[in-house]
């Protein structure tokens, strides 16, 4: 398994992309995932009805994934978020094990997972993936920060 | 980078989970991602307005990710899908490089990415992630196949 995982790392991807770009004109213009500096997973909850589930998820993440940085609880929505949430930040190599775990263990909670490429608007809207129900985002906040790295 | 990626493979995860479960009661009941046998990414398009973008994405995927199995074009919706789509099937180790690439290169298309655990309903609804706009699924079709591995 280790060998197979290593075969798909970014070095392999970069080499493969270079070869493919020589033969396929559309491939040359594809965006390279190496621009991703980190990921954020925003775990949403309702302070009354689902804070206990969010706490249990948080405890599990802390125990199993020590390299995930746990953000503060935000019972009051902050930044582009319109519901209570906390943030889980992690480095790109952790996606391979952490996202499959979240898929199977999110316990009905909505999660916005997005890469950090330096363009907060694109990262939250165009590049994002959602687990569970999609929630509205305050697009005006993201537009304001378009030229700066995401803190959200 | 190779060493870091290898540190997060499933063997590492299993060992880490075992240690964590000894100390944290909630961790023991978490679902282990080792039950994931494969992934499907369903790429949706409109036969009139976005088939060209879907074709370009397909060409790029074929060139860069030869281990992704390209499914047939379905201009007429099939199974639980309510819009035209084709399926991209891939083995679990490919998630680490393929999903980040899809995040950055889906070109405005909606994509449903789900694991295959043998429970088609849970895989398409509870375990799924969406890139782009979420589309309705025919839940009745998924319920019928609940006890059988997913073909969709």
What does this structure look like?
The structure is a homodimer of 152-residue chains. Chain A has helices at residues 2-7, 10-23, 51-64, 95-105, 120-125, 139-144, and strands at 38-44, 69-70, 85-90, 111-116, 129-131. Residues 1-6 of chain A have low confidence and may be disordered. Chain A is globular, with a radius of gyration of 17 Å. With 152 residues, the first copy, chain A, is of the alpha+beta class. Chain A has a five-stranded antiparallel sheet with strand order 2-3-1-4-5. Strand 5 (129-131) of chain A pairs antiparallel with strand 5 of chain B, so a sheet runs across the interface.
Summarize the structure.
The structure is a homodimer of 152-residue chains. Chain A has helices at residues 2-7, 10-23, 51-64, 95-105, 120-125, 139-144; strands at 38-44, 69-70, 85-90, 111-116, 129-131. Chain A has six helices and five strands, in the order ααβαββαβαβα.
C-alpha Rg of chain A, in Å?
A: 17 Å
Strand order of the largest sheet of chain A: 2-3-1-4-5
Mean pLDDT across residues of chain A: 88
The shape of chain A, in one word, is globular
Uncertain ranges of chain A: 1-6
The biggest beta sheet of chain A is recorded as: 5 strands, antiparallel
Percent helix range of chain A: 25-40%
Number of helices of chain A: 6
Separation, N- and C-terminal Cα atoms of chain A: 34 Å
- This entry's quaternary arrangement is homodimer
> From the helix content, strand content and strand pairing of chain A, which structural class follows?
alpha+beta
Largest interface by residue count? A-B, 56 and 56 residues
Share of residues in strands of chain A: 15-25%
Q: Could you give the order of the helices and strands of chain A?
A: HHEHEEHEHEH
Find the count of extended strands of chain A (DSSP E, 2+ residues): 5
């Amino acid at each position: 398994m280790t060998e197979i995982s290593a075969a798909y790392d970014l070095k392999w991807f970069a080499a493969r992309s270079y070869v493919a770009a020589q033969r396929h004109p559309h491939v040359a213009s594809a965006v390279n995932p190496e621009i991703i500096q980190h990921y954020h997973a925003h775990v949403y909850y309702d302070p009354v009805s689902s804070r206990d589930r969010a706490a249990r998820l948080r405890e599990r993440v802390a125990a199993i994934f020590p390299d995930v940085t746990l953000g503060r609880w935000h019972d009051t929505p902050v930044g582009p978020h319109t519901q209570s949430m906390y943030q889980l930040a992690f480095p790109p190599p952790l996606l391979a094990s952490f996202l499959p775990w979240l898929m199977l263990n999110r316990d009905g909670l909505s999660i916005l997972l997005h890469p950090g490429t330096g363009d907060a608007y694109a990262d939250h809207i165009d590049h994002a993936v959602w687990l569970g129900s999609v929630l509205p985002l305050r697009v005006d906040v993201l537009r304001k920060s378009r030229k700066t790295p995401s803190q959200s």
